[in-house]
Amino acid sequence: MTDHASPMRADLTVPVRTLGWAAGLAVLSGGAYWALLGWDTQRDLDPATGSITGPWSAWQVLGLAAVVGGLAFAAGRARRAWLATFVIPAAVTASFIVSASQDPDGDGLWPIGAALVALGTVAGVVLVSFVTQALSRLR
Q1: What does residue 116 show for φ and ψ, rounded to 5 degrees?
Q2: If we measure between CA atoms, which residue out of 17, 29, 22 comes closest to residue 82?
Q3: Of the candidates 49, 47, 60, 69, which has an alpha carbon nearest to the alpha carbon of residue 121?
Q4: What is each CA distance from 78 to 8, 22, 72, in whole angstroms?
Q5: Do residues 33 and 95 touch, judged by C-beta distance below 8 A?
Q6: Peptide bond connecting 55 to the previous residue in cis, omega within 30 degrees of 0
Q7: CA–CA separation, 76 vs 78, rounded Å?
Q8: What's the pTM value of the predicted model, to 2 decimals?
Q9: Which of 26, 21, 51, 54 is nearest to 39 (CA)?
Q10: Cα distance from N-terminal residue to C-terminal residue, the chain
């Protein structure tokens, strides 16, 4: 007995997979933001210098960069670099906007921070996903 896929079913496979990838990338990258950065709103005051730092530690930012890099790598291997270029930065930037705009101790400069988050995330995702995609085509 042979299994013959209907033409309609084959036509829906690509959009469904693309939507699945988009949803997965959005949930995982946005979730990583909230797991690593979103919960930390405490700024630290250095009593010796009087300078305020934070709210994040280096390990938190590096952790998010590692997760985003891993997602970009996976998307590049799956030949979905263009999708990753839009979805991952959008999810991370949207999460930053929600978090930073609600900060009661914020200085109102979150739009500049959001632009920097977006630019940095796009640059990193483009680099990792497109290099990975190009290298995977060589195999």
Answers
A1: -70, -40
A2: 22
A3: 69
A4: 23, 12, 10
A5: yes
A6: yes
A7: 5
A8: 0.85
A9: 54
A10: 35
Residue found by looking up tokens 């609600």 in the block: 102
Does residue 91 contact residue 26 with C-beta atoms inside 8 Å?
yes
Q: Are 36 and 97 in contact (CB under 8 A)?
A: no
pLDDT along the chain (139 residues), means of 10: 56 86 97 92 81 84 97 97 98 95 83 96 98 90
Amino acid at 91: A
Distances (CA, A) of 104 to 53, 73, 74, 110: 16, 36, 37, 12
Token pair of 79, please? Answer: 């030949």
For residues 121 and 92, the answer to whether their CB atoms sit within 8 Å is: yes
Question: Cα–Cα distances in Å, from 94 out to 18, 30, 81, 130?
Answer: 21, 8, 20, 23
